[in-house]
Amino acid sequence: MPQPQDKTVLVVDDEPNVRDYLAQILRDAGFQVVTAADGEEALHMVRRDPPDFISLDLVMPRKSGHKFLYELRKDKKLAQIPVLIVTAHAQDELGRPELEEIMKNRVICGPGSYLEKPVKPADYVRCVQRALGIEETGETEDRLALQQELQEHLAKADPGALRRALEALKKKKP
Q1: What is the pLDDT of residues 25-57, one digit of tens each?
Q2: Closest CA to 44 of 90, 78, 20
Q3: If you compute the radius of gyration of the chain from its CA atoms, what whole number of angstroms results?
Q4: How many domains does the chain have?
Q5: Domain that holds residue 131
Q6: What is the pTM of this model?
Q7: Direct distance between the N- and C-terminal alpha carbons of the chain, in angstroms, rounded to an integer
Q8: CB hemisphere CA count around 49 (13 angstroms)
């Protein structure tokens, strides 16, 4: 059974904060991760060192996810790499026509072929695991859910309370 640490995922997104967020979710789940800022950069990376999976934004400058995906599928060696589209534009005029064309032409198809932003970490990891044949464990989902809950609390927390919590964690070493 394949393991996350044995798989490399390429995260392609033009927004640095989204790219970093998605990459960190995958790293937290145990995957090796590389990133690209657009389809042009991603195509060079994939041709040089093909990843096991690609997480692809649809609307990007230079080379869109739509154009990247069609170029990828033209190459017999690279065409088999599973791709998950992660987009904020599935329902608007920026991305809907391209997504509909991709699905209609079966460039990618089926459940788990795209997610709409903002993505839930557990759903994102689950899509990658399923596409790569990796056993889904409750431990990964629990860890991701705890991290998300912690981030939500951190965003609202009083700095004094954060300092006290950090000190308590430092004192409680296993």
Answers
A1: 999 899 999 999 999 999 999 999 999 999 999
A2: 78
A3: 18
A4: 2
A5: 4-136
A6: 0.74
A7: 31
A8: 9
